[in-house]
Amino acid sequence: MSLDQPPGQQPAPQQPSQQQPVQESPAPVQPVWSQPVRPSRAGPIVLAVIGIVLAGLALLAVFLYLTTFLGAGALLVGLILALLPLAVVLLAVRWIDRWDPEPRPALIFALLWGAGISIVTALLFDLGVQITIAASAGALTGSDFASAVIQAPIVEEVAKGFGILVLFWAVRRHFDGPVDGVVYAATIAAGFAFSENIQYFGLAMTEGNAQGLGITFLLRGVFSPFAHVTFTICTGLALGLAARRSASKGGAVGYFLLGLIPAILLHALWNGSTFVLSGDASVLIYYAVVQVPLFIVAILVVVFLRRQEARITLRRLHEYSQAGWFTAAEVSMLGTGAGRRQALAWGRRQQRPKKLAMRLFIADATRLAFVRDRLVRDRLVRGQSTPALHAHEARLLGRLMNHRADVLGQVRPGTAPAVP
């Protein structure tokens, strides 16, 4: 294979004509190429900046709060230790998100939401409970069990889950299915666990017991870095199904509430174990018998969903191939793991423009496949699809033709071909 010839590349397909019928999908969606494509507006960018700034300020407030009773030294030690499990979880999230990467600003917002806004929400609710108990003049009493097994799971999972719902509303164009829900949920949960771990590690540090700090890090940083992730992805999966079924923004609330039920129950089960079990041996047995199987199930679900994403990509790109947009070899290159690895390996041996063009070719082809999938599903559910999705499809197809020209070193096409 020549280094100047990308893997699987064949001569560009002939543009479809009226004499070349387009193979219909189970629910045919005819692109509306005649509609003008509106340029991107600054509104979404401004909203993203505002959201990230507000969530960042919430995280700053959490740090200030922790400093008041931990001290700067213990806070710093807790922060450094908390970064280790955070890095492990974020690496796992990156692996899950490799097939169809989510927008970086959305992921930053998700992390800050979990570490900042969710923590602030839980703290304010707990403060409200304490004030209510104090104002009751003894009529109400606090309970560690009620706080850990009832209050914390409900408040924390609602706070984290609402962040996923906000992302569903804000970046709906990029929220395509269950894997996206898992990615956003895991990122929010990782942020929440990060701030929570700073508190636990910092408290162990202030007690001046190195053994206690080591045990705390072992339990939270080694044994259970994915505990919050396992709880919250239930809500993410539910909202991902809402996206897959083309639910409206209002209809997604029902899926959100449905996903909260298992998230809260799993969280309560985890917290409740500390009140039922006693001794290190009992905790380890519970961890091996209950938490490890749950974690394995979560891994299997994620692997299944990733493979489903690959199947959707391959099927939808094949439909464009039948219309003449891609060759069969290009579909194999863009829609299979082996094809992508070969294409990226080829790109790494090229100059930077071609390397970048190949990456964008793969990324935009994946987005196109999921836009097509939403168009088909919208037609099945509502009997029609939105003009905005058609415009997005047209924009992606135009970009893909430019990426192909850049990969091949050809002159970019002036206009995108039309599909009859």
TrEMBL record:
Residues 15-31 have a biased composition (Low complexity). Keywords: Hydrolase, Membrane, Metalloprotease, Protease, Transmembrane, Transmembrane helix. GO terms for molecular function: metallopeptidase activity. It comes from Cryobacterium flavum. The chain crosses the membrane at residues 45-66, 72-93, 105-125, 145-170, 182-202, 222-241, 253-272, 284-305. Residues 1-35 are annotated as: Disordered. InterPro entries: PrsW. This is PrsW family intramembrane metalloprotease. It comes from the Bacteria.
